[in-house]
């Protein structure tokens, strides 16, 4: 029964990926990509990886989907042609042969590795020392905290890189407004945005809090927050900040800075990112809350894009 | 081992197929935004290989799980940067820069 379900799930994943790549209409492609992301989330659930399922559905399907739809709209407004596929048949065939061969080689390599949860018992033994029960949070914020610290700086770096694409005379204005242009749609979006933002805030805080013992965490909570911000911005309930607003800049760097400060304080104990015995959980939750808030704002701003010359008047 | 051997490799093999599929899309699709979508499919395939190979009898190894979460966040950062670059290129194509460039300073 489980085997049949997993087989069908995998076939659906491959099918939706095919449609997302090959369908002519790009909006349909994005719709199928979002479906693909949600099916990937189901696959992670089947693997028992609820943390990853949350992240995949929220970030992989949700944020990426919004980003693609927004970019498609901007490109269409500029008169770009996104649909269609002008490559010749023979080239397509050649690419198909090469990529199938590559997938077969990769599959053979995968088959040569036996699935193994060898690190799970090791991590289980270490978990009581840091006081949190969710092993994924333990890996992210204690055993491999270095990766997560760098990752938070990668997000920040990506935002700086996106901003650096702003035209010279647009800096440091706000990004293009996300307000909907259709009055009826705006009316609905505004009420919905006002309703959903406080709920997103509570859900995000809950996800971060519960993340230390059960599935959840800073990235999942931050993404829910970003979703709330984006909906509020689309409904016009919230404006996007100028890029030189100091309070807003502090919000962006607060998470990575607190993480770095706590990591450096660990050096007093002899090692970068070491937590003192007994205080590990308190420090991890502190880092996670700051991180979640910064991630939420950074993700929303990444989706909004670089500053633009003039305020777009709807 | 109670987990059937074939089932243990089901998700990683799907991941390998996704990488091949995404690569194919990346090669044949002409518009950069569609190629960006293909890159996301490749990334999803890689995550499925990485996470799926951590599957044990009743738990999945939390270590690759954490790496995959990191990967998902980095890939959305990459997608956002790519989308911003594509939009900027399209803007420059449809409306040449309003500031006059000094002669002889045009890049090829």
Walk me through what this model shows.
The complex is a heterodimer of chains A (314) and B (108). With 314 residues, chain A is mainly alpha-helical. Helix content of chain A is 70%, strand content 0%. Chain A is built from eleven helices and no strands. Chain B has 108 residues and is mainly alpha-helical. Chain B has four helices and no strands. Chain B has helices spanning 5-8, 10-28, 32-52, 62-94. Chain B is elongated and about 60 Å long. The chains are: A mainly alpha (314), B mainly alpha (108). Chains A and B meet through α1, α2, α3, α4 and α5 of A and α2, α3 and α4 of B.
Roughly how many Å apart are the termini of chain A?
Answer: 53 Å
Strand content of chain B: under 5%
The DSSP helix count of chain B reads: 4
Number of domains of chain B: 1
Number of helices of chain A: 11
How many individual domains of chain A?
2
Q: How many extended strands of chain A? A: 0
Structural class, judged by helices and strands of chain A? Answer: mainly alpha
First-last Cα distance of chain B: 62 Å
What radius of gyration of chain A results from the CA coordinates?
A: 22 Å
Largest sheet of chain B: none
Range of helix content of chain B: over 70%
Helix-strand category of chain B:
mainly alpha
From the 3D structure, determine the CATH topology of chain B.
Helix Hairpins
Largest sheet of chain A: none
Overall mean pLDDT of chain A: 90
Which ranges of chain A are low-confidence, i.e. pLDDT below 50, for 5 or more consecutive residues? none
Poorly predicted runs of 5 or more residues of chain B: none
Topology:
The complex is a heterodimer of chains A (314) and B (108).
Chain A (H helix, E strand, L loop, with lengths): L1 H21 L3 H21 L3 H28 L11 H23 L7 H8 L8 H9 L1 H19 L19 H28 L7 H17 L11 H20 L14 H25 L10
Helix pairs in contact in A: 1-2, 2-3, 3-9, 6-7, 7-10, 7-11, 8-9, 8-11, 9-11, 10-11
Chain B lengths: L4 H4 L1 H19 L3 H21 L9 H33 L14
Helix pairs in contact in B: 2-3, 3-4
């Amino acid at each position: 029964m489980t085997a049949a379900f997993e087989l069908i799930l995998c076939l659906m994943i491959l099918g939706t990926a095919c449609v997302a790549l090959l369908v002519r209409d790009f909006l349909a492609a994005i719709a199928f990509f979002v479906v693909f992301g949600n099916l990937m989330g189901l696959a992670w659930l089947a693997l028992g990886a609820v943390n990853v399922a949350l992240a995949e559905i929220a970030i992989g399907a949700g944020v990426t989907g919004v980003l693609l739809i927004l970019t498609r709209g901007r490109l269409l407004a500029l008169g770009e042609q996104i649909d269609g596929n002008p490559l010749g048949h023979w080239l397509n065939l050649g690419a198909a042969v090469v990529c199938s061969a590559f997938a077969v080689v990769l599959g053979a390599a995968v088959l040569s590795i036996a699935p193994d949860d060898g690190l799970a018992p090791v991590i289980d033994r270490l978990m009581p020392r840091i006081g949190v029960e969710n092993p994924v949070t333990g890996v992210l914020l204690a055993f491999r905290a270095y990766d997560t610290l760098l990752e938070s700086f990668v997000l920040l770096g990506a935002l700086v890189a996106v901003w650096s694409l702003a035209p010279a005379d647009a800096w440091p204005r706000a990004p293009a407004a996300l307000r909907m242009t259709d009055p009826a749609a705006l009316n609905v979006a505004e009420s919905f945005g006002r309703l959903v933002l406080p709920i997103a805030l509570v859900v995000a805080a809950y996800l971060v809090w519960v993340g230390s013992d059960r599935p959840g965490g800073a990235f999942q909570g931050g993404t829910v927050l970003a979703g709330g911000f984006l909906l509020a911005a689309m409904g016009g309930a919230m404006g996007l900040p100028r890029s030189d607003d100091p309070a807003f800049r502090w919000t962006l760097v607060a998470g990575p800075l607190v993480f770095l400060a706590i990591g450096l304080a660990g050096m007093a104990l002899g090692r970068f990112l070491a937590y003192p015995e007994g205080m590990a959980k308190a420090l991890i939750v502190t880092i996670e809350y700051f991180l979640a808030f910064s991630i939420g704002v950074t993700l929303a701003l990444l989706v909004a894009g670089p500053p633009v010359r003039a305020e777009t008047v709807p | 081992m109670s987990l059937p051997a074939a089932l243990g490799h089901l998700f990683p093999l799907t991941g390998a197929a996704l990488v091949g599929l995404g690569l194919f899309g990346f090669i044949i699709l002409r518009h950069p935004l569609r190629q960006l979508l293909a890159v996301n499919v490749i990334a999803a395939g890689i995550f499925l290989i990485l996470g799926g190979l951590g599957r044990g009898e009743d738990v999945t190894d939390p270590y690759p799980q954490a790496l995959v979460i990191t990967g998902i966040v980095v890939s959305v950062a990459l997608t956002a940067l790519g989308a911003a670059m594509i939009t900027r290129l399209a803007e420059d194509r449809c409306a040449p820069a309003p500031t006059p460039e000094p002669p002889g300073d045009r890049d090829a």
